[in-house]
Amino acid sequence: MQIKIMKLDYGQATTESLLRKWKIDTCQQGEECWCRVIKCDPPLFFVESNRDEQEYCVVRSGELGKETVEHLVKLHNKSLSGT
Ligand SMILES: [Zn+2]
User: Fold this and answer.
1) Residues 35 and 63: beta-carbon distance below 8 Å
2) 75 backbone φψ class: left, alpha, beta (φ>0; ψ -120 to 50)
3) Euclidean distance between CA atoms 70 and 82, whole angstroms
4) Ligand 1 center to residue 58 CA distance, Å?
5) How many angstroms does the Cα of residue 65 sit away from the middle of ligand 1?
6) Could you read off the pLDDT of 32-64 as tens digits, one per residue?
7) Do the Cβ atoms of 59 and 29 come closer than 8 Å?
8) Residue 7 in contact with residue 23, Cβ under 8 Å?
9) DSSP letter, residue 51
């Protein structure tokens, strides 16, 4: 058996992110912060030139509030399970 290792660039990661489930995470400030981060589940990583692999964030910290993120993740994951 061979484990498939994908090295995606940012654009490819963006495409792939829409096919995976999403999960909610907190930013570095934790639960108390108003914002929430959306990541992929399983985690998705991408590589930019001359930089280490980074985890892809659908929504980064400081962009959207908790309630909006919860709503988006619910809708997105529901849309995946419906196909
Ligand atoms: Zn935050």
Assistant:
1) yes
2) alpha
3) 18
4) 14
5) 8
6) 999 999 999 999 999 988 788 999 999 999 999
7) no
8) no
9) S
